[in-house]
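Entry details:
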Amino acid sequence: MGFRDLLGSVLGSSRVPKAKTGKLFAISTAVITLELNLNLKPSAVAAICFKAMDMSKYTNTRNEIEELLQFSTKETGTEFSIEKDEYNFMWVVLRDKDFEDLVTNIHMISQTLVEQGFGEQILCAVYRFESEGPVYWIYNFKQGNYYPFVPRGKNNRDNNTEFRLKSLMENELPIEKDVGRWYPLWSMPI
């Protein structure tokens, strides 16, 4: 904790951490292990989530993201939609059979948001895999780490599978060590 952080916590103000995009591409190589060794198949869908922002800035940024996606998706064939969830968070949902295209587009969107000054609004990227049910790998932009999320039914999660996935993948992915930060995302649109 730096002096600014200490001062902020004493005075009751704190800064929101900036988005950490450096480890985002780790999932690109880990997908091979996930698929071959753990039988987790990429489901051809991923998403990036960010907090709502000032309406005028949001409109400009949304337009820029849509223009970039329309341009990049012509080559890749990626489909996209922009949605709000029940908590008013924005989601850019991507669909593509090529997992690398999903990762590249997630990175492009996050970089655009950072360049436009919205790095603090970026929350997470989510990659969906299939096994006996959905398995999600969530990238927390504030921490710069991944964690597994295995929902089973309404508001239930399979903690045993999550911990097993953590132990099997911690050499390939930057895994969040603090399990208190393994936030469940019940209302995500993927």
